[in-house]
Amino acid sequence: MATSAMTWYGLVLAKARGESIPTHTAIDKDGTPTTDPGAAMDGALLSFDRDYKGSGLAMMIEILGGPLVGATYGQIEGEWGSLFLAIDPNLLVDLSAFKANCSDLIQKVKAVRKADGVDEIRIPGERASLSRKEAEKTGMVEVDDAILKQLGYVS
């Protein structure tokens, strides 16, 4: 998940399509708000909430995937880093109770009243999981034509 207002790939796709990005998403290299994905790539994406809490979370994620593992931080160039963290729930709580409580939480989230025009409430990662299952079933991965064009697969 991105702690920024949009993902880097969102910028890449918008630039490839010749589209603008939403307002309040990014700033250019001079710190001026921009809707130009290219200018945003030379500047910075804002945090998802455009506030100090989102910035704090973003800083912690940057530290975990950068300085903590000896990788690049604060820019795209360089050696990317990854941190894998494993927690054994049994050290904290009974595993069956943990699973039951997580399932209950998901059910509670999915059971809330939906906003007008919303058909389904999804939990984080659910859409990606469905896309992966579909790709495994069909053997196909959908790639945007603008990206395929940049890669030289379509003209």
Structure commentary:
The chain has 155 residues and is mostly helical. It has six helices and three strands, in the order αββαβαααα. A three-stranded antiparallel β-sheet has the order 2-1-3. A hairpin with a 5-residue loop joins strand 1 and strand 2.
Task: Please specify the SSE layout and strand pairing.
Layout: H1 8-17, E1 26-27, E2 33-34, H2 37-42, E3 44-45, H3 52-65, H4 95-110, H5 126-138, H6 145-151
Antiparallel strand pairs: 1-2, 1-3
H and E order: HEEHEHHHH
Q: What is the straight-line distance between the termini?
A: 32 Å
Shape by Cα distribution: globular
- Write out the strand line-up for the largest beta sheet, numbering strands in chain order: 2-1-3
SS-derived structural category: mainly alpha
Strand content: under 5%
Average pLDDT for all residues: 92
Question: Quick one: biggest sheet?
Answer: 3 strands, antiparallel
Stretches with pLDDT under 50, minimum 5 residues: none
Give the number of helices: 6
Radius of gyration: 19 Å
Helix content percent band: 40-55%
Number of separate strands? 3
